[in-house]
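> @MW can you paste both from yesterday?
MW: sure, first one:
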Amino acid sequence: MTATTLAEDDSVIRIPTRFDFRLAQDFDRAAGKAVGRVNSEIVIDLSKAAYIDSSGLGMLLVLRDSARASGKSVVLQGASGAVRDVLGIANFHKIFAFR
């Protein structure tokens, strides 16, 4: 089982408790699949994430760029606690939709 899971029925990437460099390969693989799907929206489910570092933020930005190039948007869903604080400090609310 990988650290990130791409749901088969839609473009949702579920992030585990830590979103850091150790997820880079799994996230890149899942993000590539999500960008290739027909859905116009890619959802990043952060509801289980308790930690995010600069590499996690960077992965989100890279996904955003590739999604935009394919005419898709990225939505960050379920962020709370420290993860929401870090996203706020990084001003991600200005470049991502939140749910």
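MW: second:
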Amino acid sequence: MFVIGGVGTLWAWWLSRHLPESPRWLERMGRGQEAEIILLRIEEEAGVARLPPASQRPSPPVLRVSIWVLFSRAVIRRTLLAIFVNIICLFGSHTLTGWMPTFFVKQGMSVTHSLAFNSAMMAGFVAGPILCMVFADRIGRRWGLSVLGALCAAIGATYPFLTSAFAIVSCGFLMVTVVSAFLYTASGINPELFPTDYRFRGSGVAQMFGRLGLVASPFIILALFNRYGIGGVVSALSGMYLFAAVLMAIAGVETNQQSLESLDPEMMSGTPDAMPSPAPRR
């Protein structure tokens, strides 16, 4: 298992050697000439006619952005949104992948049957990304996460009451499919919530809290299972996803098909001194 993962990591490293830097980031850092060269190469590889250069504007001074900007009045709503979504999607997906075989064995299944059931269910982690590929850009991030969260909650609420093997595997497959689709949609919205200057920091902080949730998850999951059984675990996950669906519906930000300038939280909040960064050519 680790050898296969290691080979994949080497391949990713090889590909990253030829990955160009973000032209938008280079432009923001005052390295416009490098950004122009990369954009010319991208246009050539894409087979499109050379686009006219962007209008030249004075570059703003390059400033170091403090991590505390994530908790400023203009940005904190997005930071908290990303944190909650990351905690829920990572907690839910890792509980399903890591704990389901153990739960099945605890309920009296043999290890062989447990792994067979789990393998059939985990095929949903293939179907989920395909679902995202087809529908994510059509529905959008905000309502996509709301719909997927509601589906996770509904299927999770049904799952504990099933008794036949076929129903358990079928419903489990659907549950894993929508949970994985939620995970990958959430991974897509994270960087879109923050502007270029602190995109890595915003995504990193959200991921950090999500991983801290994973550290706590074994204690929470075992306590729920020992007290309420598998029904208690799945019901708790169902409630978490329902909370995520409502949160996205009420406080979510739609990032699909939007330019980064139009999504700048400081511009949207009306901060007087907020100025859009000069954008590379489209």
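> thanks! The CA atoms of residues 140 and 158 lie 27 Å apart.
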